[in-house]
Design goal:
The complex is a heterotrimer, with 2 copies of chain A (235 residues) and 1 copy of chain C (281 residues).
Chain A: H1 17-33, H2 40-48, H3 58-71, E1 77-82, E2 85-90, H4 92-97, H5 99-102, H6 111-123, E3 126-127, H7 128-135, H8 141-149, E4 153-158, E5 166-170, H9 172-177, H10 195-202, H11 214-234
Antiparallel strand pairs in A: 1-2, 3-5, 4-5
Chain C: E1 12-14, E2 17-19, H1 30-38, H2 43-53, H3 63-79, H4 86-103, H5 119-140, H6 169-191, H7 198-208, E3 215-216, H8 226-242, E4 246-250, E5 257-261, H9 269-279
Antiparallel strand pairs in C: 1-2, 3-5, 4-5
The chains are: A mainly alpha (235), C mainly alpha (281).
Chain lengths: 235, 235, 281
Amino acid sequence: MSDEPTDAKNEVVEATSQDHAQLAIFVEAALLAAAEPLSIDQLLKVALARPQAAPVTKSDLREALKIITDDCEHRGVELLEVASGFRFQVTQDMARQLVGLFEERPPRYSRAFFETLALIAYRQPITRGEIEDVRGVAVSSNIVRSMLEREWIRVVGHRDVPGKPAMFGTTKAFLDYFNLKTLDDLPSLAELTDMESLRIQLDLPQVEDGSSNPPAIAGGSDDSMSDDSDSDAAS
Amino acid sequence: MSDEPTDAKNEVVEATSQDHAQLAIFVEAALLAAAEPLSIDQLLKVALARPQAAPVTKSDLREALKIITDDCEHRGVELLEVASGFRFQVTQDMARQLVGLFEERPPRYSRAFFETLALIAYRQPITRGEIEDVRGVAVSSNIVRSMLEREWIRVVGHRDVPGKPAMFGTTKAFLDYFNLKTLDDLPSLAELTDMESLRIQLDLPQVEDGSSNPPAIAGGSDDSMSDDSDSDAAS
Amino acid sequence: MTSPAQSEMPFAIVEGEPVTQLPQDLYIPPHALKVFLEAFEGPLDLLLYLIRRQNLDILDIPIADITLQYVQYIEVMQELQLELAGEYLLMAAMLAEIKSRMLLPRPVSEDDDETDPRAELVRRLQEYERYKKAAEDLDELPRQERDTFDVDAHMPEQRTVTRLPDVTLQELLVAFKDVMARAQMFANFHLQREPLSVRQRMGDILTRVNADSFAEFSELFDPQEGRMGVAVTFIAILELLKEQLIEVVQSGGFAPIHVRGVSGDDADAEQTISEIALEDD
């Protein structure tokens, strides 16, 4: 059967558009199931490996790929040819709509992070070695680095001891984040005794999330009466 | 929106079939882009997170999912609802055609593996000792470990007997892998051909949506008042 | 009921040929027999095979015949030096016991199944067969990676906004309190570091475990001693293990860990069981 059906030979069964539509379904499934892009050669190999493989040529495959491309016009995915072959890809437009899919919940800082930050805030200026002395364990470089990156701490000098270790202190950005005017506004340990009053007093920063959609959520909960009964049964 | 259009309010924009078709395109892209199945709740969250989100309800989403299902009728992929949500997958028919695509053979599991898995699935919560009682041989640690690693089973509690052995139950990932929505979808157990005195009763746990197993177990023993007459005779 | 004549029943099929006798002069490739015998998932599976192969009624097992066949399998396995799980020998003993009880005159109420010595065996066989079947059903369910495949579309690169964790002042304060409290603890610890020496702890542990009885691993630790105390105990246990003065045993993957002192050998329980089994033959 091979590559190019010669016009002369009528014996050669020529693939009809019906066949091409069938092939397109197969190619679509193959591209969606494959982890990597597939080249025409790979597609040909896979097509010929089918249990009852109808003979297929590369030009048949190109026809099928064209059908898929046209079919994608009104979909959120498109057929894309990249260096190593063809693959399905979410359109740029749609990708922007899918932000909610990949929005990670912000990670939480470790206990080590909080303790280190607290020591820097309350005992500044302080060296890493001194933090380690109090905590009884080594302080990971990652923790210090992430605080420096957030610009919550800075190097305020060097202790005049062997090795000249850096001394850390908090920044203005740190005060801003916690809505503090000066370090004196940091709560004292004594204040911890009454958690309730603490919470009121502190005006803890709310998570500002501009993108929350109050109207949409309201709309959703409007329907919840009727919806919930459904979803109970469903899930 | 769609479910209960209040006749009075004309201001309420009703989702048209046009809107549902648009939503279907979005949902299709979301499911294709997501690595895991997405539940209705997750889809709703993602739909509402769109930059210019039109209000969307769960019933709108169900309409969209229906459109997608219909659309798949003539494709090599299908929309399936499994335990943790909806996902696209290659149809079984098409999967057989795709043999040439995958070099690796699918993972094979031993009989011991499946017998252990079956006991956990049908008799959960169950301890290792109880599995061994039925099978008449020791359960290898490797089998249990590989099930835990695949996250097909998990420890759902500890039996209140000496040694406090762990009780195992299956996970949503297990159901997902076997294309099941709930434990009720498992093939039913063979009937016992009974001698008069043999009354082996199976306590198939109910699948409580969302709620994890431990409370279900507690519930089980709560119910014991009514059940005990049976189960006493059993085990 | 068919009376199963042993001569007609091959106890193994090797390369298509039925084998009705123990291989004595005839050479059978041991690996072939090994593969065949290893296909059984345990004594219940082997028994079920023997029963099903002869279309016997599971509710009315001819115990004498089955026991004979079963024991022959066990012998072949032992001859091939297959690693024979203790459960096989236990089952042989159980069959022997049922057999002897069957020989005793039955109580008057003949039809009362409760008194049938086979009842418990039948119950176990049925239950096992039930889950054996369930396992086969499970294996046949269409599943990912074999019967269907996940599909995926590529997601174009997105400028992802990594959200940074939120921190409250309260969390900071609590962390400060914790770390200061711990520093206090460390200060105390400095005063009493001496008594927590590893060597002394090793001695303490050795007096608590002895060769005759196990001590539970977790009981060796005293939470009251704090983290350093626990650490010292742990180091002491490791040291004792290294010096082979104790052994640590866990019966299974998630079972509790036990510790005992090392001494002579353990009695061989399997030996006794296999003697019972063969004695009865």
